[in-house]
Amino acid sequence: MLEKICRGPVDPMFELKYKADNDTDPRKIDLGVGVYRNEAGSYQELEVAKEKLHQLNLGHDYMPTTGDDEFLRLSAEILFGKQSPIIAQSRVCSVQTISGTGANSLAASLMGREFPSAKVFVGLPTWGNHIPIFQHVGMEVLTYPYLDSSGLRPDMAALLNTVQTAPANSIFVLQGCCHNPTGVDLSIEQWKLLIGELKHHSHLIIVDIAYQGLGDGLDEDAAGLRILAESGLELLVCQSFSKNFALYGERCGALHAVSRSSRSAADVKDKLRSLIRHTYSSSPSYGSRLVKIVLSNDDRRELWVQELKSMRSRLKRNRHSLSNHLTASGISEERLGIIAEKGLFSCLPLTAEQCRMLTDRHHIHLPANGRINVAGLSAENVERAAQAIAAEVDNTLSQPSAPRVRPHDKKVLISESYLEELRHKSGREDPGVSILETTAERLQSHPSNSATPPWNSGNLASSHNGAAGSAQSTHEEESSALRVSAERTEAEDPDLRNPLTTTSPAFVMDSMGKRHWLGPSSTWAYSQQVIRLLRSHLNIRDRNEAITSVDAQAFTLDWPSVRGSMLQQKADIPSRDYAIYLTNTVKFHLGQTYHLFEESHFLAGVHEYYNCSTLSDATGQTRLWHVQFLLVMALGQALLAPVTSGKSPASNNLVARALDLLPDAHGLYRDPIISIELLCCLSLYLQSIDHRNSAYLYIGQALRIALTQGLHREHDMEHLSEKEDTRLRNIWWTCYILDRKFSSLMGAPSSVHDDDVTVPLPRPIITGDRFDALAIHVRVSKILTQVLNRIYNADGKFNSSVLRHVKDVLQETVKLSPELAVRFPLESDHSGSVSRVSATLNLCFHQCIVLAARPILISLMEDVLVNHRNQHDIAGPIKAVLKAASRSARTSLHILSSLQSQHLLELFLPFDLEQTFSSVSALTMISALPLTPDFGYKEYADIATSVFETMASRGNRVAGFRNDDLTQLQEAAWRIQAHSRASPTRSLNSDVCEVQQESEPANIEPAEDHLEAIEALGTSQYSSSATNESSELLPIATFLQWEPTFLDLPSEQFPDDWLWTDIETSTFGYNAPL
């Protein structure tokens, strides 16, 4: 029988250790197995342990099956804290294990026996044993990406989405600190964000914590675990003392189970006792007795803590030293993120071949995934290690067959025919000359090629949605505008077109097979269009993942049609005082820029309602008021406390009851004025929870009721009081503003033409600041109407008419700019803080500029992809438009950052989130244009990420979706940039034959005469605010003064490449200076 047994799989780590141990070369650097080494490269025994080993006889008798109780108590206190409530409540049970590996194996055995059908989810990359340990007990293991596309940050969007989509009662394996192999840990905010999802879906968490004390400190490294444990979640915690006590061979560890009750904890411990008895009977005693002696004495414990501090300090010094030497060798820290990582390990983005050559040529031993043990570095060898890594990178540049992807990255292969095209375009016709030689020359001669990506900010969300193996495929219906062959030659190119607006609609399908239209002006649809455009031109396969950011996916509202009309929702009516407070909350947040209720009439209804003997749903004539009351209360509660558990939105029961009572079309006409107000209120709420289609429908209903009441026409003052006239005006203009905003967010045309509207704006001289704000809001919305109806038309062609419409829109912004700056300045004369109303109006203003420039931006992108204009400069006036858009986007993000610092961000309403996504998306695409200098993208990506994280931490699930969309857009921008340059950049893995799918774009150094229009001007952080200073309006003025002669040419003579300056500019009038 034994002769039939085959060998097991090779263990790469022990193979690595064997090779390193037998390497006698004096230059040897062992960066492999995870053992803390001293400056001499030797195993370091802790002094506190060595002293006791020499003084005491620790004994060699058997341990109890579950281990030494005192050791286990001290171990639990190290993890959870001495004053932890779960210890006081006896909700944690502990058993001794054969180090951390034994703890993981015992946890897997328990789960495999008790819950054999449960799915186990593990983030990749991870410790090499996590997956096989669970597979060994017959459990199914699924994976998700642990790092985002930068390789520098946790992919929270992927993790959260996997938690949401995983079957209930799944098992998630997480690392508590000092992540192996990446060194990238979750922040405290990310741990807190994770808890809500885990609790809602009843998952069990296994936390592997093998390096406590080697990151930031004993308590700091356990902070995330303690938050989990005290949240009421069920946990299994695998603890190891191999590293922090240097007891590698003593195999000292523990498994802790955190239950919801002391009874459950006792039952779990007894089950673990049975498993231990039938597998290895008991654990080794020597190490645990030593740990107990140290931890039970305050002086010895303090000595141990100080030794850990010394070890941490040395690890951090080694990180800084390696980073500095790699930077000196041309490999930037922003690409690697070594300094920010924690613990023993860092995972360099090296290929297996590069790792092999580092061992064979330089005697530097490391595993094939690029993981290095930072403790293996020393002051003596770190410079040589960095130089060796740089040397292998340089060697890769000269090897066309060398892979250019990090471990776990996907590849997009470029065909030989495309390489031939690149060779032809490069001017090197000699077939014996490698295309790499040509592109390498460009790399050396061109200052715009650099190794550092412009974004290295923290991303809450990633492009990966759902667990691997469980996500459904996304089926996209490509519009004709996007079905472009990547092999098409320049001679076959059609005229420039705006890919956002085509006669044929573009759709995506969600995981349920439902189609979702990609509207031309929608920022979400814009990001999807860019990604589709890229895939079409570069022949990149779609990812097999479901789109989760489509309509109504963030929150589940209790619609009557879903639960059945017979099951009516009961609303939790607030008290009278609270109702008045909620009314004032809505007034504060929305009262100056929208009209949702007539205050005196509404409050009179509130008092009348609470004066009734019993609080019940109103009927008859008061039914509409009661629906309005429920919706105002819901908005107030959501604005105050947007945090929710699970997928139910804030105030779900109030809105659900309002929907129960909402009458049909005939019933709405019992009081059409209140009906319009409540429909505006309802649509705002729905848009805020990302039910975009429903919000658009209800605001359309409100607008049509207003039209049937003639509110869009000037009123006859003989039959109306001034108060009534003001109310009707404000109702109309609120409908108008919301219709324009929701149309923009949907990508749909506006419903009413401005020529049909004759009702005047509110009169600011008479009515005061409130209606002054509303009047400015209307004027900005009128500009938005021009953008929607003129620039985003259905023609799809990018010709002189589009250019003129862009000029018209920008001209209107110039007209409004001085008045906006005077009446609603961004900076207060007294406090220096930002007014919420001023911020709202300025954000809307700048959004118009960004939207107007977006078709130009994506048309440039498509032209770059089709015609490979990697060395073309952009026409000066077009630069001016991009400068204006960049300025507006950057200003918007500064405004949002100030609002965030003042705790004035609208965490529930959708507009701040939309402005954030729209602004950073525009900057992302501008950064990918050829020859674009660095304009500080990282600063603005950081702001956007911070805003997203703040919103997500307060329960705004839509913020996580937008972060995910942004990450995909960033990846797309890098691929466009890499494609346009078609030349290698100095990175850790460079090869023109492959485009790295999980990388980021290179950071471009400023170059003279290369898109200088994107430079930052002014000293104030609001230098781009709407002011009348000449320096502020210069970009727009430059474009407005441009009158190229080709605008008057027949369409067949219109130049295809008018966006670029390297054609005969004198013929077509490209003479306007920047």
TrEMBL record:
Q: Which CDD domains match?
A: AAT_like (cd00609), fungal_TF_MHR (cd12148)
**Compositionally biased residues, Polar residues:** 445-473
Domain spans labelled Xylanolytic transcriptional activator regulatory: 695-768
Q: Supply the SMART domains for this chain.
A: Fungal_trans
| Segments of this protein annotated with the region Disordered | 443-504
Which InterPro entries does the record cross-reference, listed alphabetically? Aminotransferase_I/II_large, Asp_trans, PyrdxlP-dep_Trfase, PyrdxlP-dep_Trfase_major, PyrdxlP-dep_Trfase_small, XnlR_reg_dom
Name by which UniProt lists this protein: Xylanolytic transcriptional activator regulatory domain-containing protein
Q: Which organism is it from?
A: Alternaria alternata
